[in-house]
Amino acid sequence: MPAPKNTFKKKITNGEVQIGCWVGMADSYAAEISATAGFDWLLIDGEHAPNDLRSMMQQMQVVQASDSHTVVRLPVGSDWMIKQVLDAGAQSLLIPLVESGDQALEMVRATRYPPHGIRGVGAALARSSQFSAIPDYLQTANDQICLLLQVETVAGIEALDDILAVEGVDGVFIGPADLAADMGYLGNSDAPEVKAAINDALSRIRAAGKAAGILATGPEFIDRSLEQGANFVAVGIDVIEFANAMRGLAAKYVGR
To answer: Mean pLDDT throughout 35-46?
Structure first.
């Protein structure tokens, strides 16, 4: 029996559009609610949300019962963090702050078993192999890993072609907020120069035959990203959606 098929990887590799949402509340109950919404994928955020390995695993467990696919963003591109979250059951990873082809190659190797990489062989006791219930996990796991690299700086944009040339990179995700900040437009992803850089990057990613991703909030930004070829797009953030709903409800009724 092989490792579970990563249908999300297959779809974005084939160019299908997959719509997702950021899950940053760091809580399995909230993640389960998000999993009932019908998104194609949900991003469990380990970079800016207060998550650890256990909380990310718990969220993966509850989302797994739905039709939404989980993508896990780690805090940094570290081989030992990658090893742990893969053993915990993640098959799709988003690695932040990638700025070179060499770094991209390191991330590919960290997600693959030898001789193609350096992932530690410990799946026999891990959730990824269903605790040894998948006898062919070691032989089939590599093919089901979806590696997405986040480019979010000027240096990353300059190295984009080198990153895209690395075999084993399934997609590149543009981080608009950090890119805007690094370009000198902190808090202003709508600056014309930032828009131009994002549009160019998305087009180059798709032209290279890779999946292109972005977090785009607001209808105009979402539509523009899709038009430029983005095919795994997060259209919202659970924390902001919840906060706005609660504030709107309070504003409507408090003090009447």
So the answer is: 98
Rounded to whole angstroms, the Cα distance separating 213 from 206 reads 10
- Which residues in 124-139 are b (16+ Cβ under 10 Å) and which e? eebebbeeeebeebee
Interval 69-76 mean pLDDT:
98
Q: Which residues, 6+ apart, have CB-to-CB distance to 185 below 8 Å?
A: 191, 193, 194
CA-closest candidate to residue 20, choices 49, 51, 44, 4: 44
User: What pLDDT does residue 256 have?
Assistant: 83
CA 134 to chain centre: 25
Please, what is the angle between helix 101-110 and helix 79-87, to 10°? 40
Of 1, 29, 36, 48, which is the active-site residue? 48
Q: Is 116 a catalytic residue?
A: no
Region 105-120: mean pLDDT is 97
Q: Where are the domains of the chain?
A: 7-253
Query: What is the pTM for the complete model shown?
Result: 0.96
Could you tell me how many helices (H) and strands (E) the chain has, helices first? 12, 8
pLDDT band at 255 (very low <50, low <70, confident <90, very high): confident
d(CA 110, CA 112): 6
Q: Cβ neighbours of residue 102 under 8 Å, at least 6 residues apart?
A: none
The residue type found at 191 is: A
Q: Which residues have CB under 8 Å from 84's CB, separation 6+?
A: 53
The CATH superfamily holding the domain 7-253 is Phosphoenolpyruvate-binding domains (3.20.20.60)
144, 134 Cβ separation under 8 angstroms:
no
Residues in the chain: 256
Confidence of residue 30 (pLDDT cuts 50, 70, 90): very high
